[in-house]
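TL;DR need structure tokens for one chain.
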Amino acid sequence: ATAITDQSAPLLLSMSNITTLRLNQTNISENTVLDVSNLGSLKSLNLLGITISNDTKIALAQLQNLEHLYLE
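>> reply
TL;DR here they are.
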């Protein structure tokens, strides 16, 4: 529930060693969700309160390095 938006995406993408990312209750788009989900070290991603399509949910579920995915 922070002020993170799509404009924050470049900063998030620069954190190549981040393992946990809590984006719940933020104002990011589905495109940013897909971008940050591809961070190689990311093991846990919290997206509670963010509306994403079923296609994006399926794509996220197939990420091999992601151990924990929190969705509504």
